[in-house]
């Protein structure tokens, strides 16, 4: 160890925020382990790192005991022998002798380097974790690094994120080097460093894309109240304006549909239904079944369920292909929705009357 090494520790503290005292304590513990490993010492020893000069010294420690209590001369020393060293010693005091091996400097330098490298790695992992944990539920642009067993690895700069098959848009194909926008779903700490899970199928991706495209959403004038999505196929989004002069649907669609078109293009032609939110459950449920027309909505507040009656010719549209429209409407409103045609509703009503 030398003066240059101490200056290097000062630089680490300054540039990377690694506390020098904590680093030196860690080095001392590592050197203690290295000493015992390399020199097979069973003694109680202490390693001292001179913080001003960078010198390393090893001291053996013995406890001053009464003659009748002496058990191990490596660990203990009789009071009378201790007082031959210094008359001031008392029972229970610790006597130290320097036992630094001649070639311990080489081992110390190697050990200290390993500790510093490990600590730098840990500090960098912590910085990356703190940086990305603040970006949870946000969109970032990454580059596809590779695809391995249906898992897409996305390079986000200082770290690679993973996108599992469940978080991919069905039917979307990815190629190495491709730039893609991803939603940061989760940031976890692991023994190997931060692990970041990203998504392109999460409803949050659609919401964030609209925030980027629609200034009124970014500014909070138009609020996204809820989003339901079946990635790659269709999304429903409920919006509300806090300014009566602003049409929330028009703001999201944009001039000649430009804003929503940009998002549809990003998502690979996924259909997007933008619906006006209402605090009235019946109105909201009716709007959520767009593009189908609705005749009546009968709500049950206690069960949070609704019976919706639609024109006969609109029944298949209201339910949607494989039930998708009804399913997305139920997710969007968080209500259980039962859809019937007018003729079905009238028939059931007549049966009850009879």
Automatic annotation (TrEMBL):
Protein keywords: Cytoplasm, RNA-binding, Transcription, Transcription antitermination, Transcription regulation, Transcription termination
The keyword Protein transport belongs to this UniProt entry's keyword annotation: no
Predominant subcellular localization, coarse grouping: cytoplasm
Location of the protein in the cell: Cytoplasm
A Pfam family assignment: NusA_N
SUPFAM superfamilies found in the cross-reference section: Nucleic acid-binding proteins (SSF50249), Prokaryotic type KH domain (KH-domain type II) (SSF54814), Transcription factor NusA, N-terminal domain (SSF69705)
Cellular component terms (Gene Ontology): cytosol
One GO MF term: DNA-binding transcription factor activity
Every S1 motif domain range: 137-201
Claim: Secreted is one of the keywords in the record: no
GO biological process, one term: DNA-templated transcription termination
Family to which this protein belongs: Belongs to the NusA family.
Function: Participates in both transcription termination and antitermination.
Quaternary structure annotation from Swiss-Prot or TrEMBL: Monomer. Binds directly to the core enzyme of the DNA-dependent RNA polymerase and to nascent RNA.
Annotated protein name in UniProt: Transcription termination/antitermination protein NusA
Species: Romboutsia weinsteinii
């Amino acid at each position: 160890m030398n003066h240059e090494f101490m200056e290097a520790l000062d630089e680490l503290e300054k540039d990377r925020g690694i506390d020098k005292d904590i680093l030196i304590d860690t080095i001392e513990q590592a050197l203690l382990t290295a000493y015992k490993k390399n020199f097979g010492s069973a003694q109680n020893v202490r390693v001292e790192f001179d913080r001003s000069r960078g010198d390393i010294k090893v001291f053996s420690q013995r406890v001053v005991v009464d003659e009748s209590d002496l058990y191990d001369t490596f660990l203990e020393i009789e009071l009378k022998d201790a007082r031959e060293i210094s008359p001031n010693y008392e029972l229970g005091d610790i006597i130290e002798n320097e036992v630094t091996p001649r070639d311990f400097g080489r081992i110390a330098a190697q050990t200290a380097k390993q500790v510093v490298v490990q600590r730098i790695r840990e500090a960098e992992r912590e910085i990356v974790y703190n940086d990305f944990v603040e970006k949870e539920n946000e969109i970032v642009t990454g580059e596809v690094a590779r695809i391995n067993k249906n898992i897409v690895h996305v390079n986000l700069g200082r770290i690679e994120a993973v996108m599992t098959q469940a978080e991919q848009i069905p039917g979307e194909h990815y190629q190495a080097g491709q730039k893609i926008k991803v939603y940061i779903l989760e940031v976890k700490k692991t023994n190997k460093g931060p692990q970041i899970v990203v998504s392109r199928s999460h409803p949050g991706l659609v919401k964030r894309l609209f925030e980027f495209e629609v200034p009124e959403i970014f500014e909070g004038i138009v609020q996204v109240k809820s989003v339901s999505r079946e990635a790659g196929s269709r999304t429903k989004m409920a919006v509300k304006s806090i300014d009566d002069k602003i049409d929330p649907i028009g703001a999201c669609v944009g001039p000649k549909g430009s804003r929503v078109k940009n998002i549809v293009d990003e998502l690979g032609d996924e259909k997007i239904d933008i619906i006006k939110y209402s605090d009235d459950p019946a109105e909201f449920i009716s709007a959520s079944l767009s593009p189908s027309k609705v005749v009546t909505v009968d709500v049950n507040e206690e069960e949070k369920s609704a019976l919706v009656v639609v024109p006969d010719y609109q029944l298949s549209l209201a339910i949607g292909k494989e039930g998708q429209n009804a399913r997305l409407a139920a997710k969007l409103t968080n209500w259980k929705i039962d859809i019937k045609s007018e003729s079905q509703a009238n028939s059931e009503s007549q049966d009850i009357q009879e």
